[in-house]
Amino acid sequence: MASGTNIAYQSSGTYVITEATGNIETGNNSDTLDDYLEENDYPTLSEYDEQVQDIVDYVNENS
User: Do the strands 6-9 and 24-27 form a parallel or antiparallel pair, or are they unpaired?
Assistant: First the structure.
């Protein structure tokens, strides 16, 4: 992410957030991660899913 924040997420709900400040946050609940994303003006997991589906649909329609 442009802010220097990196987020690693697994489908099991486990995540690690590493901020440029050195702060590291871990958890295992996708709702908590979505809260973090919303609070920091990042797209939520469902918004990312929609964006990916839009790309898949576009590729399927134009190939």
Answer: unpaired
